[in-house]
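HUMAN: Ready with one sample?

ASSISTANT:
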Amino acid sequence: MHSEKLKNFLHKKRQAEQSGGEERILAQHEKGKLTARERIDLLLDEGSFTEIDALVTHHYYEFDMQNKKFFGDGVVTGYGTINGRKVFLFAYDFTVLGGTLSEMGAKKITKVMEHATRVGCPIIGIADSGGARIQEGILSLDGFASIFYHNQLASGVVPQITCSIGPSAGGAVYSPAMTDFVIMVDKLATMFVTGPEVVKTVLGEEVSFDELGGAMSHGKISGVSHFVAKNEYHCMDIVKSLLSYIPQNSTEEPPVVDTGDDPNRLDNNLINIVPENPLQPYDMKEIIHSIVDNHQFFEIHELFASNVIVGFGRFHGRTIGIIANQPMVLAGALDIDSSNKASRFVRFCDCYNIPIVTLVDTPGYMPGTHQEHGGIIRHGSKLLYAYCEATVPKITIIIGKAYGGAYIAMGSKNLGTDMNYAWPTAQIAVLGSEAAVRIMNRKEIETAKDPVALKKQLVDNFTEKFANPYVAASYGTIDTVIDPAETRPAIIRALEGLANKRERRIPRKHGNINL
């Protein structure tokens, strides 16, 4: 009798492991895609996966659904380890009814999300889904709503990472957007609220799946995707690298790694990276790579709003979030997209106790009707809010230009930054010399006998007074001017001095950031 029950159990177990069956698994492979369980095996340490709810099925009977039951019901859920660190995860299973979300599938996902937040482990979602299961109607829609609610509950408590390796449409795109990081696989992943057919019907616009919502579109244009992976293997490598920099949850400190890099290492070539002419561009990444441990910088949102650089590096083994202007793109000016990109990254770092280092070389906020009408005031204020709100150690180094509102927004002293340094090449002013003289001395120049000579003299005088960091240093808004060669040890000493920083704020429900 017991043998029959055991035999029945093993049969069901094998059925669950086969998901939608051999034919559908073959079809998945023919598309150049791995199955949900193969993806989990690729991501997790070998033999570490424990599946939850493998025998769940839907309980819907309309539209002949009683004859379309599969164990797991379109999503594989459970937990395991990545390089020894526990994570909870769910993977949509495209071999079961196209990975569509059912009522029971949503319950499976929210169950692992609840487990993850209770025990303080990252949540990883692998998306390959046809969206809401049409046959289940409102039950499927309510399932998505429940997932969104749990995304919000987990936000700022445990890191949430999305791997998009197939289609995500309609409601299926909003859960990834609520997570901390989205990785999309090029040529396989698509995300859109409405597909190409609806776009064509409603707007008469012809657009391909990839153009509308492919990985490169979201990586470069919309900013939905933080990383564009070359393939599924690269995608999982990105997850592993990302997790190596961040803590398990908001109560922990970031991982400390013995990198073997001398904390007192100098680089006498750093000052030569910055051109004599402040209008000439240079690559800020050269400076970043020089000062971080072992020259390793893990960039995030590399393709999107590249006039600002964000990512993780290590200083003396500890994870640090880096935000930097990029003079190679738009002269390093802040615009709508870069303000959103930088402020979101600042807030992530603050959630997870990651100190922030800001490198500044910016001529200001981007001018023009496109920016003003697009809401640069509203979006630009997010960066101010994010820096003001952040209570982690904050260190700012002004390398070149720091003009106007952008000087303020890029981690200035009065936003609550702990240590503010400047190179001798720093220029801190309301405006650049030419623009300032044009405004302050317009009438004087117009009536001068030799307006060209007078303008040059006035510009030279303004430059001599403000194209340096010493006025700011005299008021203490720059704590000290440093030799560029000593940038790395100066940052490490500051981080060590701020290691026990604790800052209490006035109790409140939450602030009201200008979204």
User: Anything to note?
Assistant: The CA atoms of residues 112 and 192 lie 26 Å apart. DSSP finds 21 helices and 17 strands in the chain. The chain has three domains: 2-245, 270-426+468-497, 432-466.
